[in-house]
Each structure stands twice: as structure tokens, then as C-alpha cells.
Amino acid sequence: MKTAADITLVNLNMLYVRHADGRAERERHLPLGPLYLTAALERAGLRVDFRDYQTFACDDPFSPAAIEACLAGSAPVLGVSCMANLLPFALLALRDFKRAHPGKTVVLGGVGAKSVERLILERCPWIDVVARGEGEVSGPLLAAALRDQTPLEAVPGVSFMKGRTYVETPRPERISLLDELPPPAFGRVRVADYGAYGMITSRGCPYPCTFCSVAPVWDLKSFSRSPANIVGEMGRLHAEHGVRLFLFQDEFFVSGKARVMEFCDALSRSGLKVKWKAFGRVDLTDEETMRAMAAAGCCEIRYGIESGSRRVLERTRKGFTPEQATAVVSKAVDIFDRTDCFYIWGFPFETMEDFRQSVFQMVAFRALGARILPSLLCFLPQTRLYEEVRGSGRLEFCHDLLPEYMLTGHEALAGARCEFPPAHRHIFEYIERNPDLFPGFFHFDLAGNVLPKLAVLQEFGFYGRDRAGAPETESCGAHSPKVRMAGPELATRAG
User: Fold this and answer.
1) Are residues 106 and 47 in the same domain?
2) Of 125, 252, 296, 391, whose CB count within 10 A is highest?
3) Which residues of 209-221 are buried (b: 16+ CB within 10 A; e: fewer)?
4) 269, 247 in Cβ contact below 8 A?
5) What is the pTM of this model?
6) Cα separations (Å) of 450 from 314, 343, 398, 444, 446?
7) Could you tell me the CATH number of the domain that includes residue 154?
8) 493 pLDDT above the threshold of 80
9) Angle at 212 between CA 209 and CA 214, to 5 degrees
10) What total number of domains does the chain contain?
């Protein structure tokens, strides 16, 4: 049945994990970005047909038949949101969709296309428009222009091809008054269908960490919602949907002591009996702040430590020292029910001595009671680190090892290793043919840098052994099934 909507908006972000022993894990994360966009489109008077592919019932979400069924009867304009790990899958699925529906306009949004917009449009002619930046401003203007067939040059924050010429319109100014945004369109989903509830209390991060793919998306600027606005949304979701646990997904919730203390005071005065989790920076957190957070219901704090080596922290412009991390984490484990410490390994300039310092700190923090979550470095195209290595000729694709943040759901995992089922091998062949389009799937110096460090991590129990049925550990990256994410155990990093 065809929809009468102006645009069909589809969330293609999902977490699906296969195991070599035949098990599969599929988890649903509330699609906040697309729901914010849906609300903005509706406020502008546009008719939106919203579909979340996470909740689409099918045996294999990566089968062409499942995608075809999900997109059946869509509007003349199809808008798709995806992240970098599912960008290859999304592009190939949209190619098939466009072949079957050549008269429809396909718009690609989400952070997956960041910094490769031109490559996508030049190599994937079935993509008509790539939307860049915050969609609440440009989204309604783009949808209206496509509906009314007016020139796209007048729409801010979009990229498209005009003949053989690549066109990129200027992005609009960042949205600084987040309280004025309409809340996500929760009426378009069943909140109870999702494993846990995430919230965004701020947008952006001002810290220039060279490996980070999040801060560049927001131009290294941060804007925050007011404590009253955040607590108000928590109250509505608690009253209307019974939500009792919130994950603040933005990585800059702890942006300063005064803001955190004001939020904790507002939440305490509201009388809401809820729990919440948040990300923080060790250099912006002290004991008084942590105790106030715990007293206001924070049951879990997550720190991006990244390395135990002072030299690596300096090279990546992280902004704090190993000593600062030790001082804060040693207090946090006694204050919160759970303290998570995220690490990144496999930096091109990380010597084995640097790496051993990280492992030593990881082991020490684990002994204190922290949960250690190491992830293999991911070279996403918007990062400064990728710019440093892109012309080195040392990025390699490995057929049985992917960075945790780039797991797609097509591969089957056995310990730290993976294998590509024959039905999905074409996805990885597509990735391998386009390293500049999908650099996040590639490694820097497998033999000399990645594999020796992986062996050490496995020796210390931070990754499972490379065999089917290997015992699971919690020590792995955000997209790994070994991090228990169902219900209140949700443990993913933002972006």
C-alpha cells in the first residue's frame, strides 16, 4: 500500500551480531536522531512516514527481501539514516531500491556519510542527495524543495550532483538553543520495544582528540540543554512510558562542575525516582561532582581513558594525564555501582612500550572493580588521525578482524576473529574495493602493530580466544556482544 506522506524516513542503524556457533543477538536502540528530524518535519507541516528497521520483523535483516518489504509503499522521497558501520550495506540496499523505483528520490543522512559525501555521489548515482549536519533546519527545507520541485541550491547543508558537477551548499549555523527544538517524535514508536532509553543532553564536543569521529561532526562546538528541559523530558517519559533508566548518550554531559551540580539539584528536587548513566571526562570530574551525581541517581559513569601512556595521550590531544585518570577512577569505583573505562589500541605511533603502559593501567583498574572496554582504533574519514595516515599506503583490510565499532552484523564472530558468510561476502568485497570510502574497516600495519597487541590483550583476558564457543568476557568494544547490553545493562558509546 502506498503512503500519502511527503517523505518516508527510515532508520537503518541497528545492532545485530552473529556468532560462529549459530547464535544471533539483535538489539534495539531508540533512534533519537531520526525522531528529532521527524518532529521537525512535522512541525513544518510535512507528512512523514517514519519506519525503524530495527523493529521490522524478519529472519535476516540483511536479506534483500527484508529490505524490499520494509521499504514497500514508501513516499516519493526516501530519507535514510545510517552510521559508518552500516554505510556499505545501506548503499548497496539503496542501489537495489533505486533500480526497482527509478522515479523516487533517495536522500542519505546520518553521520555515516560524513566527509565522504562527494565520493558517495560520484560513485553511487542512485543516491540523489546527501544531507549534512543537523537536520532540523535543512531537513524541512529539503523535503519541501523536493516536493515542490524547486532548486536544491537554495537548501542549506545538502550535497548533490548537477550533471557531472558536485554541488555542496553551505551548512546552516549550529542550533545553539536546544531547548527550543521539538522533542523527539516518540508517538511514532513504541518506547517499550527498545531495550533501554537514551537521551541527548548536549550536542557537540570542543575537545580536538585526533582519533575522535564525534567532535568533527559538530565542528568542535558544544551546546547544552538546560537542566529543567532535560528533567522535564525524563519526567514525561517516566510518566507516559514507565522509563526508569536513562542513558545520556552525549559524550559531553560532564562539561563542567557547575552544570552537572545544577542538573543533579534539579533532578533531586523533581522527586523523580529514576536511575541514569552518563559519559564523563576525568579532567572535568572531581569527588564532589561524582558524589552529587550518585546521590541524584547516577548508577554508572563511563570514562574515555583511551591510553595509559602519557606520550599517546599527548599525541592524540586527549587533554589529561594517566595520573589524572588514576586519581578519578580509583574514587569512581567506590562511588558508582559501575565504572566503565574505554580504551583505544592500535595507534600508528603507539610503541609496544606505550601499549604495555595501557595494559598495565587496564589491569590495575580492573582489579579496582572497573569494567575495561578496549576497542581497536577505527580510522573514520572525518578524523585527524585518518588524514595523517591516508597517504601512507599502510592501511590494510583483514578478512577475519574488524574494529569493534565497524561490526556490521553480516560477519560471524568467534572470539576476536570473524568470518564472512558466503551470502554476505559481496558486502566486504565492496568495502575492499573502496578503501577511501570505507576507511574505518581498515587497519594500520597488521603484522607489526595490530596482531602483536591483540595477542597481548587476549593473554590478559581482554578478548576471547579465536575459536567458536570461546568463553565470553566483558572486556571489548561498544558494538561487541560481550558487553551485555540488554535492558539496564546497555553499554554503548555515542556516535
Assistant:
1) yes
2) 252
3) bebbbbbbbbeee
4) no
5) 0.92
6) 21, 15, 11, 7, 5
7) 3.40.50.2300
8) no
9) 120
10) 2
